[in-house]
Design goal:
The strands form four sheets. A seven-stranded mixed beta sheet has the order 3-2-4-8-10-14-9, sandwiched between helices. Strands 1-11-12 form a three-stranded mixed beta sheet. A three-stranded antiparallel beta sheet has the order 5-6-7. It is about 35% helix and about 25% strand. The chain is α/β, with parallel strands linked by helices. A hairpin with a 2-residue loop joins β5 and β6.
């Protein structure tokens, strides 16, 4: 359980105008972005989970090199719809690989309720073990998952994940690595909080801010996985340390091999798109 505390045409146009040549050349990028304000019947309805998903989807299209047809946004979907979407994306990734058309990246994002190692999608559930199995077995070269929900750290803590600001992955401008990485908004025994003041969850707010350039530590116009995590960790911990819900410590687990990590967004672009 998480504690309570625009246009498609515009997005498509922005993606076309701001598409990053380097990202397109390095890899084809796929994403499934989920937001669900409703958990199981015992849960209070969330105020901003679906809006968090919209924000994440928007930044991936505008700055992440994701084509609109490869980045699926699902709001209020149930587990059956999510699994069907995952299988469709995996089919596209596999076909891309078989054609020998280059590297692939898959990014999964979820904002909503979670409890007992399950993501709650209305009255249905998506098991964390099943999600982890999917990430392990996907044919994408790099698989990333970001989970903003209470107790989401269970997915990584039971697999040896860590909580803290360190993220010791060398980074390059290309996807020249393979494996998966998981980033969660809180530890396994912590609440993940949202705020009416920022109109969203703390973790997603700072993650999206990082991806829009605030996390670019090196100033090279690129936000890497490590940079995004460190920025979101520091800001989330600082902001939640004074809330009633208590401190959140984002966690991570990665099983990546190769020469380096991955650039998530390219912020050194000209032009802008104002959302409707």
């Amino acid at each position: 359980m998480r504690a309570a505390a625009s246009s498609l045409a515009c997005l498509a146009a922005c993606a076309a105008l701001l598409a990053c040549p380097n990202a397109a050349a390095d890899a084809r990028r796929f994403a499934l972005v989920l937001g669900n304000n409703a958990g199981h019947s015992r849960d209070e309805r969330l105020g901003w989970a679906e809006e968090d998903a919209r924000k994440m989807h928007r930044v991936l299209l505008e700055l992440g090199g994701f084509a609109p047809e490869d980045a699926r946004l699902l709001l209020g979907a149930d587990a059956d719809q999510v699994w069907k979407a995952l299988l469709r994306i995996e089919k596209a990734i596999s076909a891309h690989a078989k054609r020998g058309e280059g590297k692939t990246l898959f990014l999964f994002f979820y904002s909503g309720h979670a409890e007992d190692q399950e993501l709650e999608l209305g009255e249905s559930s998506l098991g964390l073990d099943g999600l982890l199995d999917f990430l392990r077995s996907s044919s994408a070269d790099v698989r990333l998952a970001f989970l903003d929900s209470c107790h989401s750290g269970k997915l990584v803590s039971m697999k040896g994940g860590r909580r803290g600001p360190g993220f010791d992955i060398r980074v390059t401008d290309e996807i020249d690595s393979s494996g998966y990485a998981i980033v969660t908004s809180s530890a396994d025994d912590e609440l993940s909080q949202e705020s009416a003041e920022i109109r969203g969850a703390f973790f997603t707010h700072y993650l999206v801010s990082a991806l829009r350039g605030a996390g670019d530590e090196s100033g090279d116009g690129k936000v890497t996985l490590g940079e995004a995590y460190r920025y979101a960790y520091d800001r989330t911990l600082a902001r939640t340390s004074v809330t009633i819900g208590g401190s959140q410590h984002p966690m991570y687990d990665f099983k990546l091999s190769g020469k380096g990590g991955v650039v998530l967004t390219y912020t050194d672009k000209r032009g802008a798109c104002l959302p409707h």
